[in-house]
Write the structure tokens for this entry.
Amino acid sequence: MITVVFLGKLADLAGAPTLRLSAPLDWAGLKAALPEALGEAVDDPRNRVAVNGALLADKAALQAGAGDEIALLPPVSGG
Amino acid sequence: MITVVFLGKLADLAGAPTLRLSAPLDWAGLKAALPEALGEAVDDPRNRVAVNGALLADKAALQAGAGDEIALLPPVSGG
Amino acid sequence: MMRDIRLLDRMFIPGTLIGPFTQANPGLGGVCTFVGEVRFDAAEQGGVEALELTHYEPLTLPGMHELADRAFERFDLMGLLMVHRVGMMRPGEPIVCVSAAALHRRDAIDAVDFCMDHLKSAAWFWKREKRAGEWHWIEPRQQDHEDLARWQ
Amino acid sequence: MMRDIRLLDRMFIPGTLIGPFTQANPGLGGVCTFVGEVRFDAAEQGGVEALELTHYEPLTLPGMHELADRAFERFDLMGLLMVHRVGMMRPGEPIVCVSAAALHRRDAIDAVDFCMDHLKSAAWFWKREKRAGEWHWIEPRQQDHEDLARWQ
């Protein structure tokens, strides 16, 4: 299984802070597994993606396997 | 009498923090009453003069009477 | 070199951090400290009832350490303290404390300014406020982006 | 509006001033504080044994009040604390403490920066240091003049 973590507004859209999906997943596979509104939102270039704490320069290059954690990160809003 | 207060380096030159002189005093009178090295030093445009806590825009306009306090102020060096 | 970078999930009292931090940097010329608190905001704007700060563990603390590294490279510092609250907070509670010790005040003040601008709009935090019972996500203000751009 | 401008002729502990100052400004967004200490300087430079700060009563405190007035005019402040030591000090002792409380951090940080630059080279203080038993008058550094010029 792969854990998907939603931060900020994306957690509201997802209705939960995390989701468990079957491995493996590429970017198209992840989007297909998400509700439509959320799939569109994560495509927004302002939303970043990290795998196991490492930010991806190019989301489309996502490759995640069993035990990996994918984080979907909207723009930050700090202290 | 008029009290003359020397601050900073001027106190070193004067050898004392204050001096009492007879009233009245104008700028020429004050310089004449000071040791030569000190008289020259107070002429330096970087050294300012205050009478009773009010800075003089033009030292040459000094007019002090009995009970007045003249302060001779070298450039500041702060905290 | 004193370096103290932390995320805290409960209330803290800045003075209890700053005293020991200052003591730990003997020979310093100056210490600059900024403490940010959760604002109340006016009742007519629907006063803030609570603030929640979410972070993402694998990115947030490492990001603060990278920011500290950059501050040490950019300024001549003796010590740096950077503490940020996460979780649920009430108005009036401290949310962030940055303190920099240096031989000269310019380095201390600028380092605090630099760290605060980056924490405010370039660190991995997501903030939402509760007003009149409703949660609202907060975006960095235009001013925050302009402040950040000063360092680029 | 909290405003506390003082000359002190004995040792003070900045934390004992900053805590009450922060408490006195409820609803603030941030507090920036700078504390300057008497530096030791390296022994090879003839380490500082003592520092004496002379002031001229009729000008020094009124000058600090004018500086505070200008800070309140220039920045959007809720409170300002400005405390300066005079007299004889030893290395490691606090010599100046400026703290500004504001709704937004930019005002708090800039007000402290502004006050410090002016206290450092445009306030009525004369400073001398004792090194190897000899007293030396201190002049503002070139950097101090450049810092001051930023505000003009």
